[in-house]
Amino acid sequence: AGAPQLLGAIAADDVIPFLKFLTKKKRDRPKVKASVEDSVITSNGFLAFSTSESNLGGSSTVDGANSLAESETSADIEDQNSKRAVWFSWGIASIGTLLGNIDHITPILTMFYLMMYGGINLCCFLLAWVDSPGFRPQFRFFSKKTALLGFVWCLVLSFLISWLMALLALLLLYAIFKYINISSQQQGPWNVPKAKVDSKTGTNWGDVYDSIRYKLTTAILAKVTGSENFHAKNWRPQLLTFVDTDEKGVPLSSEVLALASQFQGGRGLNIVVSIKQGSYLRQGTYEFAQHCNETLKESMGKERLQGFCKVLITQSRFNEAAWAAGTHAGLGPVSPNTILLSWMENWRRRLAPMSMDEMSDHTDDVYSCNVEEFVDTLKGFSNMRRAVCVLKGRKFPRYGDVMPPDSTIDIYWLVDDGGLCLLLSYIISRNSIWRRNASLRVYAVSTTSEDGDRENLKQLVVEFFQQIRINASVFVVSLHETDIADDFRARSCDVCPMGVPDMTIGEKFRSLKDDAMSTASSASGQSGQPAFLSLGINGACIPTPYSPPRLSKKFAQPLPVNENEVYVEETRRFLLPDTAKKFNELIRENSVDASLVVTHLPLPHKASSANEFMAYVDTMFENVDNMLLMQGTGVEYMTTVA
To answer: Which residues contact 298 (CB under 8 A, 6 or more apart)?
Structure first.
C-alpha cells in the first residue's frame, strides 16, 4: 500500500508533471452566502437560518457549512486519486509478472531501492554540509559522516550486485532529475527564468543545489578577498551599466544593454542600474520600483544579458546616486571596475534639472539626469579609479544580428590608456555577432612632429600587437597641426585625477625604443635603465614613463609668495570644438564604412563647463552612427605574459 500512496503524493504535489493524470482537479463549489433571512441547506440535510437583526451564529454556521463541504470534496478527490495510483501501480507490477520469471526484474528493483536510500543519505549530507538553517533533523544520533557513508555504501552495493543494472538505474535517475529540473524552470517572456514553483499550488519546494551554490560562492569570495587588484592577464571588465527608463521601466537606450551583453565574452560581472527620482515615503513607490525592475529584467533577457538589475529611487542628484551605486555594488573583488553609459543624444534639452512637480507634468519626457550631473558623474568615476565607457549607438547590432562581410571595428589610438581600448575592442570582436565577419583596424594617431617617420611608428605598433597576440590591421594617421593630444592626456599644469593618460602613442613607443637601446647599452657595459618597471599593486609590467618636454611659458605657474595667495593661469587651455571637428573629419575620412569606432574619452576636467564638454564630444560624434569612448585608470590592461 506504500507505493501507491507515495505515487499519489508525488502526483498531487506536481513534482513530476507527466503524473498529472493520477490527480483529479478540484471543482470550485459556490460558497454559501448569508443574507437577510437566508436559508441554507447543509450537506447533512439540516436547514440553517440567519437574520440580520439577530445574527446568533448565523455566519459561523455558514462558514462551517462551507468548510465541511470543502473537506468532504477533498476527501472524495483523495480517495479517487489513491484509487488511480493503485490501479497504475497494479499495471506496472503486472507488466513485470508477465515476463514469467520474477528474477528478471529483481536486480533493477534492487537498484531503485538502493538509489532511493542513497539519494536520501546524499541529500541529508549536503544539507548538513552547507549548514542550512532549514535542515533540523530530530534523530538524536544523526551525523553527516554517517549520511555520507550511507550514500557511498548504497552506491558500492549497487555496482557489486550488477554494474550494468546500476548504470541503467543511474541513467534513468539522471533523466528523471533533468526532466523535473527543466519542467520546474518555468520560463517567462523572452526566456527570463522564474522561481521553481509548483505550477498548480504555487508552492516553492526549494533546491539543495541553491544552498551548495551559495556556500561555494561565499567560500570563493572569502578566498579572493584582499586581491582586488588583479594582474593584467587576469583583468576583465566588471560592468556597472546605467540606463534611462520610462515610467514603466522600459529602457530608453537599449543599445547600451546590447553592448553590455557583448562584453560578456570577458566573463565579468554585469550589474544594470536605473536611477529614478522619487521617495519611499510616498505610497506605492516600492511597488513601482519592483514593477520597473521586472520590466528591466525582461529587457535584459531580450539581449541575453546575464546579470543583476536594480531600480534605485532617490531624491538626490543623479551623480551622487551613481557614485553610491559604484561604491556599494558588488562584493569584494567581484565589484564593478568599468562604468558603461549611453550618450545623451538630446543633451541640449536637458541643461537644467527638473523638480518633482515638473516631472509629474512631463511624464513623456522625463530623464534621470541633466548635463551638469552627467559630466559630474564622469569626473567622479574618474576620481574613483573606474574605467568609463560612453556609447553612442544609433545602429548598434543587437542579439540575433550578424554583421555583414568585411565589417570592421576601428580603433583610434591617441594616448596610452594601458591598452583599455585594445582589450575591450578585442572582447567585442569575439562575440558571436562580430566574430565571423568583423576584423580590427587600428589607427595610431601621430600628434607631434617628434613622432618621426610613419613607417617606423607603424613597425613598432605592429611588433607590439604581435607581442600581445591580437590580429589587427595597423595604419598611422597624422594630426600634427592640432593640439588634440592635450585634450585626452594630463599635463603637470592640469587639475586632473591620478591615473589618466599622460603619454601619446608616439611618446610611448619612443620611450620603449629608448629604453631598449639603453638596456642594450647596459648589457655592453654602459649605464642604462630597465625597459620596464614593475607595477607594485599587481606585479604587471608597464613601460617606463616618458618625461614630457618642458612646459612653455603660457603653461608656467609662478610660486605664490605666501600660503594664502593663489595664482590663476594666465592662459588656460579649454576644449575647442575646432579640434574635435578635425578629429571627426579624420574619422569620417578613414572609417566611413566602419561598423564601430572606438577611441578615447576627452578629459572632462579640462572643460570650463559641462556644456563645453558635451559640445566637444557631440562634434566628435557627428555623422558617426556607432562610436564608443573609453577612459582608463592608469593601470595596464594588456600584457605580453601568457
So the answer is: 188, 189, 190, 192
